[in-house]
Amino acid sequence: MEAKRGARIPSIDFVRTIAVFAVILIHTYPFGGIESGLGKYLKVFINQGARFAVPFFFIISGFFWGRKIEAGLNSVHVFYRYGGRTVSVFIAWSIIYLVVPNNIAVLSANGLIGLLQVPYSRLVSLMGDPLKLLFQGTKDHLWFLVSLLWALLLSSAMVKLNRGIWLIPLASMLYLFGVLAGSYSETPIGIPIEFNTRNGPFFSTLFFAIGWLFSRDRRLFSMKLAIALFLGGLVLHMGEAYFLLRLFEVNPMRHDFLFGTVAYGMGAAAIVFSVPALGENTFVTKWGPYTLGIYVIHFLYVDLLGSLGSLFNLYIWGIVFPLIVFLLSLATAMFIAKFYLLRKIVI
């Protein structure tokens, strides 16, 4: 969700660009093939250290939604406006990821036949798991759009029913279930289920609701408290991951959300609102409007270029690969945005 033209907050665009690069770090898996030495620890720290990004995006989405609600607009109308756009972006990129080849070798070997085989084989695979198709489309990272839609739906419904005061408690219960059925599922207090709670409303709703709180009062935290919350959240998240590894042998690379992630993501948003001029007039901030495009596009390049890693030193590739994916995704988003009919699927 975007701010109105002329009313952008520089710090949001600045941190949003950093956050989308953090997402790319998660998906490019830097130093992933290294099982000893410095790389063994770097890959975990980078992967889990980047986990503030998705909560931050949910919070900022909730903030923009909340501004509309606080301005007195009808929550149903706001839902249809933002929800309709989210659905259109989800459908558009699900179609794109269905038909675009992600393996150069297969395409070069089979030519035109390969172009037809790719979507057919993917569709057959997806039809075997319709629930997965519904909650994350034709590519895993599109789960974010569906989860955002759930958060938008629940938040709008609570406001429409004059039960907004219950949104945070409801969202907190969903989050608790999500963590217990997710990263804690293999512990004594876990809830083992055959569903990835990353998808759906379990985590997105709480962060979206926190964004609503920020729309009511951006100065919930001073700059010092915001930084302390962010760093404290990082320590909590990392400590929790270490605790689960040492006591229950849970692989730290599998964590999307932990209890400490709430403070981590909220701290990133608090910094943005406590220092609204952060990054003003920098090139990083100017890239902020393209973060949606970078997010939906980047897996095209992750898939196409990922196999090239075997040609390079793992440490060098771990640094170069995320940068290449980011820059190519940014350039593609900028190019698509030049076309009026297409810009809404990247901005």
What features would you describe in this structure?
With 347 residues, the chain is mainly α. The protein has one domain. The protein contains 14 helices and no strands. It has helices at residues 10-28, 37-49, 53-70, 75-99, 104-127, 130-136, 143-160, 167-180, 201-216, 223-248, 261-274, 283-286, 291-305, 314-337. Helix 3 packs across helix 11 and helix 4 (75-99) runs antiparallel to helix 7 (143-160). It is globular. The chain starts with 9 loop residues before the first helix and ends in a 10-residue tail after the last helix.
Overall structural class, as computed from helix and strand content, comes to mainly alpha
Strand content: under 5%
The run of helices and strands is: HHHHHHHHHHHHHH
The counted number of beta strands is 0
Mean pLDDT comes to: 92
Radius of gyration: 20 Å
Span between termini:
9 Å
Count of distinct structural domains? 1
Instruction: Specify the overall morphology.
Output: globular
Could you estimate the helical fraction of the residues in percent?
A: 55-70%
If helices are DSSP runs of H or I spanning 4 or more residues, what is the number of helices? 14
Largest beta-sheet details: none
Low-confidence stretches: 1-6
Oligomer: single chain
